[in-house]
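Entry 14. Ran structure prediction on the chain below.
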Amino acid sequence: MTASEKRGRGVGSAIAGQAVPILFAVLCLFGIWVAKITPAFLLGELSARVGRNSVLVLSLLLPILAGLGLNFGIVIGAMAGQLAAVLIVHWGGKGILGFSEAWLLATPLAVLFGLVTGLLFNKAKGREMVTGLIAGFFANGVYQLLVLFAFGSLIPFHDPGMVLPQGYGLRNTVDLTTIQYAVDNLVALRVTLEGVVTRIPIITYVVVLAFCAFNLMFFRTKLGQQLRAMGQDPHVAAIAGIPVDRNRLIATILSTVFASWGQLLFLQNIGTLNTYSSHEQVGMFAIAALLVSGATVTRATVGQAILGTILFHTLFIVSPLAGKALAGDAQIGEYFRVFVAYAVITVALVLHAWQIARAERE
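Output, structure tokens:
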């Protein structure tokens, strides 16, 4: 084989390896063209979405590094963040101080939830993804019981603006305006494009960059190298003296804590909490956002997390408008983006199962 043929094959393999992000980029560009979306509108929508969703996607990286796969259990961390937000607003927390208190309160809750989830993962080695998914469903049931019945009855909680008329249970929607934009409004850069002013939340992006930097530095630590070795072959890692079970617990706890912080960052941008449903799709959408970047069940990077967040949420912005332009119904675009979210997860899991089966045959 000549050198030019080798280069051509190398380029072809690189393109094939990036087929998913390329496809998503093409879909986004097509939707922008069909719907005639202006750069100013796209920038304004995307700056808010990427800022409030990136930490949730980044919370998936450590479990993948440790060989746990896609952590569907981050929904449990999101619940910890929501409980902290409800309590802080009830206690009168406001602005960045109230938001910081919510982060502090969410941390021990998320550590506890992550510890329980990690212990469960250690009992279900090799089946962590389905275990995390089912654990999320179970935790959701406990959460629903807590917020629907315990608040106001077992737990003293009598805020008329937050409790249902019967005196117990939280309302479907909780107002979080006291901490809304607590981070976004600290420092905001105003960008004027095509006569439209867009506010870029600088501190929010500083927080996202801090999480990116933490992950990059963590990968280079001794613990990070141990997690990488575990992800490649946990049996060999255990023989080498690496405390596999303990490290799996640490990775799960950190992922759960990051998810709780990410959910709070999301909520302060939204300003309202859908008490019974805000957390339900956190895991699915974060995992889909990661996978559209070309990441896999066994390998993901910080760059892929950010790229996937940008591509996935660009499609979220574009698809309803493209659906309306093509078929006169924005709901078609909604159906399409939900289909895409589940499709990329399904394909990733099927490919992972196929790779495991092939490795076992060899």
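The CA atoms of residues 21 and 92 lie 44 Å apart. Will compare against last week's run tomorrow.
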